[in-house]
Fold each of these.
Amino acid sequence: MSIQTLSSFVQDSWVPGQGALASLFNPATEEELARTGTGGIDFGAALEYARKSGQALRELTFAERGAALRALSKMLHGHRDELIGLAIQNGGNTRSDAKFDIDGAIATLAHYGDLGAGLGSLRVLRDGDAVQLGRTARYAGIHFWSPREGVAVHINAFNFPAWGMAEKLATALLAGMPVISKPATSSALVAFRAAQLCVEAKALPPGTLSFLCGSSGDLLDRLNPNDVVAFTGGAQTAEKLRGQLAPRGVRLNVEADSLNSALLGPDVEPGSPSWDIFVADVARDITQKAGQKCTATRRIFVPQERISAVQEALIERLSTVKVGDPAVAEVTMGPLATRDQLRDIKAGLARLRAEATSVFGGEGTVVPLSADPSKGFFIGPTLLLCSSPHAAVALHRDEVFGPAATLCPLQPGSASEQAREAALLIKRGGGSLVCSVFSDDRAFLSEAVLGLASAHGRVYLGSEKVAGQTFGPGTVLPQLVHGGPGHAGGGEELGGLRGMAFYSQRTALQGDRALLDAIVPAAAPAAAPTI
Ligand code: NAP
């Protein structure tokens, strides 16, 4: 059987991979699925073409840009099953994991489509209210956001080939910037097909969407201060990009590693609704997408007196996980995405075991279901217990990007003391994407939230009141910001219209108030932006 060669889409043409090609595999069987590469692409010409296309995008109203995003969402939805199939093949995703990625992409594009519709005929966005600057109200000042006149380069991680691409595309295109999107090569099959579908939808002005399937070549060295780069991936790559882009004055948003935590309040009794949400959320985060989620819970903080009950409840859940070929319906957790991930996770687990004990899953060794045990990048779920989290180092430093999490006891004390101790330990992670807190005690929650906020992009409160309504802390919603300080990269994406700020220039405008209102009309109150 001949192996498919994937193409890139530049200057409105599909260019098949040339030169040295990288291989894409099925991580359950190690079968080669496709090859790709960007050899032969003239990155300078591709960039110039994309930059020029921005004019047509900027001339569209927000409603027109939103309609284009809605059309992309509809196109992907129409090919949902095909995309799910590709994610199972190339990403090691179970059907449920694949739906999480694909449906996330479809929903995020639709959400930004609706935001565009709400802004109607506007092309630029007011920021806040007008302020009086002179003796009378006639002399005033406003702020507004307009699209940057460059290209938005998007570099995505392997774990969410559809959603990662769509969430960046949606925000940039609604803001009015053309995009060059690059998926991680190892899992690019889904992104490649999604890009083909977006092109086939013919919804966007020509040139405003380019797609690089393989290395970014010398593209980044050609960027200028009008361009921006939104990156999702590992901290080491982020460090390289910072060094490469800062001297060129290129704006960079980084979404990187994160040591997310879950915190159980001392008021939560085993078997209560809040307890059940906690156990379900933590167990889901360990196993969903084989733990390859940037938002997955890695550290679990629990009052000392609840440790054995939590351990027992989590082990009961983890014992039901069926690791194997994700193409088989009864399998609930697939393999890791690549051989390198398997190697890195085993090494990370060994570092954790130097300061914690494995209470479930040992070293992660597993006999996969319906799969050749000599092939594939399989690892079993692992739960560790670290009895001295204050003394631990790797626990708070190393993101083990797989199906593993570590339980940590909080010392006996009042609810307030435990909230403060937890915040101290959690902040040893150096800044994270999300922390989930499970409690029905308002005073405890308030102390925990205010203690955690500065080190987190998002705090999720799980309690009886929201039972049955939440998607869990691991789900990134387009309405809320995604990103985290420090270790997590310091970036911020999404958050409704807030995400557009990265792709825009904020300008202060002062003069006659009537003139300001005519040049930059305010949005209807219902759609008034907060960015
Ligand atoms: P990675 O190895 O850093 O790769 C990420 C992306 O960067 C890929 O598209 C990769 O392309 C590209 N890349 C690598 N070196 C580059 C360079 N010198 N210049 C330009 N592009 C370069 O990360 P990964 O293994 O795909 O993803 C795993 C990591 O991502 C985890 O640490 C996870 O926490 C993080 N992540 C974070 C978030 C978040 O939102 N914070 C979300 C998902 C994942 P190639 O594949 O072609 O090498």
Amino acid sequence: MSDTLGTQHLLGIDDLSAGDIDLILRTADGFKEVLARPMRKVPSLRDITVANIFFENSTRTRLSFELAEKRLSADVVNFSASSSSTKKGETLLDTVNNILAMKVDLVVMRHQDPGAAVFLAKHTKARVINAGDGAHEHPTQALLDAYSIREKFGKVAGVKVAIVGDILHSRVAWSNVRCLQKLGAEVMLCGPVTLIPKHAAELGVRISHDLDAALRWCDVANMLRIQMERQGDGPAYFPSLREYTMLFGLDRKRYESLGKEVVLMHPGPINRGVEISSDMADSGASIILQQVENGVAVRMAVLYLLAAGMDRTGIS
Ligand code: NCD
């Protein structure tokens, strides 16, 4: 079992082997223990500077990374596009080069364009973590989801996971499919015909347009949000939110009609009453807050492992 990652950056799940993912999850176990102690801070990233560069709005992911970095004793700088020169026409590379000139070792970036993190990694010396690039990938979300499933079931292999909702526009869905498949889970994508791309079946996942059937099949349902901001002004993908909720929303009545337990997940932010009812989101079946808690430990593991493989003399 190796104790180093086979990658310098975390741009997408494809950068990781199953062994790398296992190493991240095992390392996160240790950090989860640290987070449960009265002294929740370790010196692992002392003298390492991390820049969180967010070109797209985020609350939980940015906070989760920042907390992870601070628990590891890193120096942290934050940058968000709304308060920056990007509004004045500066390019992504200019912005990033300016930040790196200040001797930053690791960059955590969220950007609205798919491929932005790959571009950045090609043009900088720093290690890059993709915190979400358009509808492309969100690898740390998939890792924390896998961690949460493993915590609940004691394993990921063989667990049946249905990912429900706006698959077409969801970076969480794509990263989850890749990550879960690498770990041997069975994956189903469920949603309206218009929100599941035609090529999805080629990925070796099951496809369903019937939520009740999906729920009867799965052990875990990951209920995704409708990504309104990515659906554009063209023809609507479904007739109305009300109809969407009737067909693809999970409420207590639907859950109880199953007569079995299904673990409920959601990456947040939740649109309560649309993809999941409030009472189900807060029910004993839901592990939504455990996901948030695990997110800090998993991000600590990713930061720690990427920094451990760093040539400290060559970097900043
Ligand atoms: C997700 C994202 O930003 O892709 N949220 C998150 O990272 N917490 C999912 C979403 O926005 O629906």
